Amino acid sequence: MLPENAEDFRTIWLSPDDASVVQIIDQRLLPHEYRIHDLRHWQDGVVAISEMYVRGAPLIGATAAWSLYLASLGNGDVAKGIETAAEALVKSRPTAVNLVWAVNRVLERLKTANSAEEMIALTREEAENICDEDIEISRGIGNHGLKLIEAISEKKNGDTVNVLTHCNAGSLATINWGTATAPIYFAQQKGIKVHVWVDETRPRNQGSQLTAWELAANKVPHTLIVDNAGGHLMQHEMVDMVITGTDRTTRCGDVANKIGTYLKALAAHDNDIPFYVALPSTTIDWNSRDGVAEIPIEERDPDEVTNIYGVSNGETTHVRTIGSDTPVSNYAFDVTPARLVTGLITERGLCAASEDGLLGLFPEMKSS
Ligand code: MRU
Q: Which residue among 41, 61, 302, 355 sits deepest, i.e. has the most Cβ atoms within 10 Å of its Cβ?
């Protein structure tokens, strides 16, 4: 079950009993069942990513890295095995750029390996590094985002700060702390009064099934709302700020995130409410500029729209909610143009959603 101390929480780890097994939480089953799932072969990693046992851009990247480690343990030509796994992994979900980033990072590290043993050791080390660094990235985002919440709290003379979030950019989407949730957790730890409006996030309900679950586990006051409620709440001054995550942000600051994020940004803009995106640098796609034109948007199985997961008579089940004659489309992400984003919260600080803003914090990417 969950560790006593939030500091110790992790979403992926090497089994303490068997160094050839990677363990994850099967997020498809939450909040009704907390089940640890074993990844024994790199193909299990591909399934876990594409079928969303794990999800959230940083965790997808970390799972890919650990899957390459599993590939390195396979029989036969280790280099060939890793190459085959890498090709399959980068295709397992198209929108989150962390996937390609993590695979390339491991492959780059392996260039120095001279033996099969060294490949295994380096792949494992790199997967561990990616996870450890991700925790520090979330911590950085948390500390910088905390200042924004603090400022609003001061302006409200200590009254509750109401944050609206979409999907799950929480601990479950990263290794720990989350991106959008890290400022919220840190504000709560500091004694700032904070309350979260949790968008349900159809069709897969990452808001109602994952964000609500982890906020409840961490005792953060929150309220679940249907996806279409945000605009109404904003019109009635019930939202002080929006913080979402991102799956891929272009070098000019356009942000791809869970479908519906764009509509929240439009509503926030119309109501003069700050709309922030928590952005780990691993999610920046320095090679793209125009998000709407260039970011691949995943289309998923229509079953996710027609069927809902829940509990009936004490048993978990999927229920079909619509008739069979209606065609369904299931776009999983949309792009919020930079002009609608008040600011980006990165591990290095806050910046404008623009090329200048991002390069101000990441000057080493100027020549990329
Ligand atoms: O389809 P998902 O659940 O992988 O989508 C996740 C999101 O859209 C998150 O907001 C994003 O990955 C950021 S996670 C820190």
A: 61
